[in-house]
Specification:
Blueprint (H helix, E strand, L loop, with lengths): L6 E3 L3 E4 L8 E7 L2 E5 L17 E6 L5 E8 L11 H4 L4 E4 L2 E4 L5 E4 L2 E11 L9 E4 L6 H8 L7 E8 L5 E8 L7 E6 L7 H12 L4 H9 L1 E5 L4 H6 L15 H5 L7 H13 L3 E8 L7 E6 L7 H15 L4 E7 L10 H9 L2 E8 L4 H18 L3
């Protein structure tokens, strides 16, 4: 099978997805200042296979004068989300220019009549000679794996310890960042990005790392009392390949945490590495950071495991107090419960951490419709809340 076409270029425009994290194929010109791009489906054989909902493309004006072009995006989500259409649910896009993220005006997005999975986007382009004239457009806050690795290399080694803990299926390093009290008895918190690679959990980790490495007195107090650990990218291959939920083997690793926790030989190397790390650190709190971009979701969402899964009543009380504080934060709401008999996340690493390690656990799902600064502040507020409720 021939490789998909990922680049369109003429005298006036470059439209491409042939870069790390790009998603989109068959870029083409439909008419004057009107172009199209088809989202790429998820690989493998899992519930999202064949679904095309993540988009990330680069675009550059080849003319000296600024102009506005129209990009037709064609996705496909089947009936996974209760018959909601991709175009209906996509009401924001994120634009990255010169390393800075911003949100495209929602008024620039238009559903195409009679095509439920098709969206037309009016995109203003800077002139070719303007600084940082290339734009990267996505429905998630796109952060390439190699850029994340370079960021980890800049972290102050006097404050944080960065170490490789494993390699991915395609031999990319997986890193952990450890900050704070190194004593064996120090209470430990572990944060990881979800293995769903399009989602911006890695940027939530970055926000908390930057905060903890700062001179803020609240950060210093947390460092003194806790050991706070991060695995900012848990699916490097999927991130590089531009997938929404899949890894390089075409698997959906988020729903395979139980394989790693049970020691199964069939566990993916990335999930097994995260589980080994959790077993070693024995955190009292494990948060997995996700993001979402669907219009039907009102804001940041907590996907929760029932505190009753823990036998320790004092730990359950801490859990309840913590989530009460989280739900009081701006833009934050309850999403769903999972227990042994309800919900759909029993196979996740978070559920395994609760039932096998006795950890308080949960998923925090930021909404990509907010400016990145809002989500960063929310992540730091969550961390502060955890430090506040932990018993002295």
């Amino acid at each position: 099978m021939a490789d998909p076409v990922r680049v369109y270029k003429d005298d006036s425009l470059l439209l491409a997805t042939d870069f790390e994290g790009g998603n989109g194929t068959n870029p083409q010109c439909l008419g004057r200042d009107h172009y199209a791009l088809h989202l790429e489906p998820e690989p493998g054989k899992h519930p999202f296979s064949g679904v095309a909902y993540y988009v990330c493309f680069g675009i550059q004006n080849c003319q000296p004068a600024p102009r506005t072009v129209r990009i037709r995006l064609v996705g496909h989500i089947w009936e996974i989300w209760r018959r909601r259409d991709w175009a209906e649910q996509t009401q924001h896009l994120v634009v990255r220019r010169g390393g800075r993220w911003s949100l495209l005006d929602p008024a620039a997005l238009h559903q195409v009549e009679g095509a439920t999975d098709t969206l037309d986007v009016q995109l203003p382009l800077p002139g070719a000679d303007e600084p940082a004239s290339a734009l990267f457009v996505s429905n998630f806050h796109w952060w390439p794996y190699s850029e994340a690795v370079r960021y980890l290399q800049t972290i102050d080694s006097r404050v944080a310890r960065v170490r490789e803990i494993a390699r991915s299926f395609q031999n990319r390093p997986i890193y952990a960042v450890e900050i704070g009290n190194e004593a064996a008895h120090a209470p430990c918190i572990v944060h990881t990005q979800t293995p769903q690679p399009s989602e911006m959990g890695s940027l939530a980790c970055r926000a908390m790392i930057d905060f903890l490495c700062s001179d803020d007195p609240a950060a210093a107090a947390i460092r003194e009392r806790f050991r706070v650990c991060f695995i900012p990218m848990t699916n490097p291959d999927g991130t590089v390949l531009g997938y929404g939920v899949s890894d390089a083997q075409g698997r959906f690793p988020f729903f395979e945490g139980h394989l790693a926790a049970s020691g199964a030989d069939t566990a993916t190397p990335e999930t097994a590495a995260v589980w080994r790390y959790l077993e070693t650190q024995r955190p009292w709190l494990f948060w997995e950071w996700h993001s979402n971009n669907w219009a039907r979701r009102p804001g940041h969402m907590l996907l929760r495991y029932r505190p009753e899964l823990l036998n320790d009543p004092s730990r359950r009380a801490v859990w309840a107090a913590l989530e009460e504080r989280l739900l009081a934060l701006p833009h934050t709401h309850h999403g769903s419960w999972t227990s042994h008999t309800e919900g759909g996340y029993q196979n996740s690493l978070g559920f395994q951490a609760v039932t096998r390690l006795g950890a308080i656990s949960g998923m925090i799902k930021h909404h990509d419709k907010y400016p990145l600064s809002v989500s960063h502040d929310h992540a730091i507020a969550c961390l502060k809340a955890a430090a506040t409720v932990y018993p002295s």
